[in-house]
Design a protein that fits this description.
binds flavin-adenine dinucleotide; 47% helix; 23 helices; binds ligand DLZ; binds iron/sulfur cluster
C-alpha cells in the first residue's frame, strides 16, 4: 500500500466551477493531484433543464477537462453514459476514492445549497480527509455578507453595493467618493426603445466536435425537455467567453445603460452583455470584467450611466443575491408570504397566449434559453406575481428554462425579487405593474390583440385589471408600505362601481388560465 504522502489529493470540480484558479486547485502540484469531473444523471434531471442548459454545461465541462489535461493535469472525467456512473456527486466521489485511494479530497464550496448539504456529509462518509474551500470567485465572502446582514434590520442592495464599490475601488475617486458624484445612475437607465437603436449582433460560436457530440447526446437522452437546441451558440471555453466579453465591451456597453430596461419584439439581445452563462460557469472573472468596463469610462469610450449600470449588476446585484441566498436558505425555497397558490399557466411552457409581450419572452426563452432582465422581471415575473402563482412552481420554471440558472442566483430573483415571497427582505415593494409600464418600455403593445389603454372589459390589456386585483387582494399587507400606500388613494377615488369592473375583469381573465400539466419541470 502506498504511504500517506505518496497518495494524491482528489479535487472534484463541479459543473459550474470551470476556473483554472479555483480555490481547491490553486497552488496544487500537478503530480500530486487527481482532478475529478462528473457528468451526473441526478444533476441533469433533478429538474428537467432546458436542453441548451445541459448541452452548455456538458460541453463546457468537456472542454475544460481537455484544457486541463493539455496543461499536464491528471483528470478523471466520468461521462453520463458510462455504465457504472453512480449518478450523484457523492456516489461518483466514492467510486473515485476507490480508484485513486487519495489521502484527501479538496473541494470548493458548491453554488447550491442542495449540493453543499451532500458535500458536508463527506467527512463522515469517506475515510480520507475532506477539506472544503471558500469559493473566492465571488468578491464578497459569505462570512462578510453574514456580518453585514446581521448589523442591519433591513437589507438593501444599494447599501451593499456602495460597500462593494468602496471595497473594490471600482468607480471611486482617490478621496473615496463615487466617480461622477453619484453612486447610482439608475434614472438614466430607463429609455424607451427608439428607432435609433441598432444593436450589433453578439458573437455566437458554432458547435465544434465536442459540442456537436454533446448536442446529439442531449437530443437522445433529454429530447423531451423544454427548449430548442437549434440556436446553440454559447461560449463553451474561456477563450470564447473572452471573445464575447471583448465584443460586448467594444460594441454594446456604451448603449447598455440607457436601454437596459427596453424591450423590442423579436430582438433578443439588445445591448445586454449575454455574459451570465460564462460568469456563472466560471469562464469569466467578474472583477476583471468590471475593471475593463471602468477603463472604457476612463478612456471616454463609454458613458457613466452604462459603465456604472453594468458594474452595479455584477458587484451589486450578482453578489447581493448570492449572499442573500446563503443567508436565507433553506427557508427561502419554501417562502410564500403572499400565500399564492395558483398553478403556473400552461402557456409558460407552450408560449400559446395572445398576450404579445409574454408570447415573445417565452419564445426567446425557448429558442435561446435566455431572456433579458426586464423580460424576466416585468413581463414574466410581474404576470406570475399579480396572478398569484405558487412560488415553487415559478421557481421550478425559472430554474429549468434559463441556461444561466443555478439556484443561488435564480431563487432570490424569483422568490424575493419578483414574487415578494420573502415578505420584503430583499425588495422594498413588490414589482407589480400594469400594462402601462410594458407599453412605455417596449414595442409589444402596438400589435397586441389587447390595448394597454383599455382598462377593463373586452380587449383590455389583462395586466390592467390584474394589477388592481393584486393590490386589492394584498391591501392589508401593502397599505402600510410607504412606497405603495399612496396607490390605495387612487383605488379609493375610483368608487365602488369602477372597482367592481376592475375586479370582475380580472376574475374573468383568471378563469381562462389553463394550469400546466405535471411533468414539464420535474419528472412526474
Ligand atoms: P446583463 O444585462 O448584461 O447584466 C450583466 C450581468 O449582471 C449579468 O450577466 C449577470 O451576471 C449580472 N446580473 C444582472 N442582474 C442580476 C440579478 N438580478 N441577479 C444576479 N445577477 C445579475 N441571472 C442569472 O445569472 N441566473 C438566473 O437564473 C437568473 N434568474 C433570474 C430570474 C429573475 C426572475 C430575474 C428578474 C432575474 C434573473 N437573473 C438571473 C438576473 C438577470 O436577468 C440575468 O443575469 C441577465 O438577464 C443575464 O443576461 P446578461 O448576461 O445579458 O445580463
Ligand atoms: C446544472 C448541472 C447539470 C445539468 N449537470 C451537471 C453535471 O452533470 N455535473 C456537474 O458537476 N454539475 C452539473 N450541473 C451543475 C450542478 O447542478 C450544480 O449547480 C453545481 O454543481 C453547483 O455548484
Ligand atoms: Fe402585453 Fe398588455 Fe401590451 Fe398586450 S397590451 S403586449 S398583454 S402589456
Amino acid at each position: 500500500m502506498p504511504d500517506h504522502a505518496s497518495r494524491p489529493v482528489l479535487v472534484p470540480i463541479l459543473g459550474d466551477q470551470l476556473t483554472r484558479g479555483l480555490a481547491s486547485l490553486r497552488g496544487r502540484a500537478k503530480n500530486d493531484t487527481v482532478i475529478l469531473m462528473m457528468e451526473l444523471w441526478d444533476e441533469a434531471t433533478y429538474v428537467r433543464h432546458h436542453k441548451q442548459k445541459i448541452a452548455l454545461i456538458f460541453s463546457a465541462m468537456r472542454h475544460f477537462a481537455a484544457e486541463l489535461e493539455e496543461a499536464g493535469w491528471s483528470v478523471d472525467y466520468t461521462r453520463l453514459t458510462e455504465p457504472d456512473n453512480a449518478g450523484s456527486f457523492t456516489g461518483e466521489v466514492a467510486r473515485a476514492i476507490e480508484r485513486h485511494d487519495p489521502r484527501a479530497v479538496h473541494v470548493t464550496h458548491s453554488g447550491e445549497w442542495r449540493v453543499q448539504q451532500a458535500i458536508e456529509q463527506w467527512p463522515e462518509k469517506f475515510a480520507c480527509d475532506v477539506e472544503i474551500f471558500e469559493d473566492d470567485r465571488f468578491l464578497c465572502p459569505l462570512s462578510e455578507f453574514r456580518a453585514w446582514a446581521q448589523d442591519r434590520g433591513t437589507l438593501r442592495m444599494e447599501n451593499f453595493y456602495r460597500d462593494m464599490r468602496r471595497m473594490t475601488g471600482l468607480l471611486m475617486t482617490d478621496d473615496g467618493e463615487p466617480v461622477g458624484g453619484e453612486w447610482n445612475y439608475d434614472k438614466l437607465n430607463r429609455e424607451s426603445p427608439d428607432e435609433d437603436m441598432d444593436p450589433p449582433p453578439r458573437p455566437t460560436f458554432a458547435p465544434d466536435d465536442i459540442t456537436s457530440e454533446v448536442i446529439a447526446l442531449v437530443e437522445e437522452r433529454f429530447g423531451g425537455h423544454f427548449g430548442s437546441l437549434e440556436n446553440f451558440g454559447w461560449p463553451v471555453t474561456r477563450a470564447e467567453a473572452e471573445e464575447a466579453a471583448d465584443a460586448f465591451l467594444a460594441e454594446r456597453l456604451a448603449r447598455f445603460g440607457p436601454y437596459q430596461d427596453a424591450m423590442v419584439h423579436g430582438q433578443d439581445d439588445l445591448y445586454h452583455s449575454m455574459l451570465s452563462t460564462s460568469l456563472n460557469l466560471g469562464l469569466l472573472d467578474p472583477l476583471d470584467l468590471c475593471r475593463r468596463a471602468e477603463a472604457l469610462y476612463a478612456a471616454g469610450q463609454a458613458p457613466i450611466n452604462s459603465v456604472e449600470g453594468f458594474i452595479r449588476q455584477i458587484i451589486g446585484w450578482r453578489e447581493y443575491v448570492r449572499g442573500f441566498y446563503w443567508q436565507f436558505m433553506p427557508g427561502l425555497a419554501e417562502a410564500n408570504a403572499l400565500e399564492a397558490h395558483r398553478p403556473l399557466p400552461e402557456f409558460y411552457w407552450t408560449g400559446a397566449t395572445d398576450m404579445r409581450c409574454l408570447a415573445d419572452c417565452i419564445r426567446s426563452t425557448r429558442d435561446n434559453a435566455h431572456a433579458h432582465h426586464i423580460q424576466r422581471l416585468m413581463v414574466l415575473g410581474n404576470f406570475a406575481l399579480i396572478t398569484g402563482v405558487d412560488p415553487q412552481a415559478v421557481q421550478d420554471w425559472y430554474l429549468v428554462v434559463y441556461a444561466d440558472a443555478y439556484e443561488w442566483v435564480e431563487l432570490p430573483n424569483v422568490a424575493a425579487m419578483i414574487l415578494y415571497a420573502d415578505g420584503g427582505k430583499l425588495a422594498s415593494k413588490p414589482y407589480a405593474a400594469s400594462g402601462n409600464y410594458i407599453n412605455t418600455m417596449s414595442d409589444y403593445c402596438r400589435k397586441c390583440t389587447y390595448s394597454p389603454h383599455k382598462k377593463t372589459g373586452e380587449g383590455a390589456c389583462p395586466f390592467n385589471p390584474l394589477y388592481w386585483h393584486f393590490m386589492h387582494r394584498h391591501r392589508e399587507r401593502l397599505e402600510s408600505n410607504h412606497r405603495v400606500g399612496r396607490i390605495y388613494a387612487n383605488w379609493d377615488r375610483m368608487g365602488a362601481e369602477r372597482q367592481r369592473e376592475y375586479l370582475g375583469s380580472a376574475e374573468a381573465f383568471l378563469e381562462t388560465l389553463v394550469p400546466e400539466k405535471e411533468g414539464w419541470a420535474r419528472d412526474s
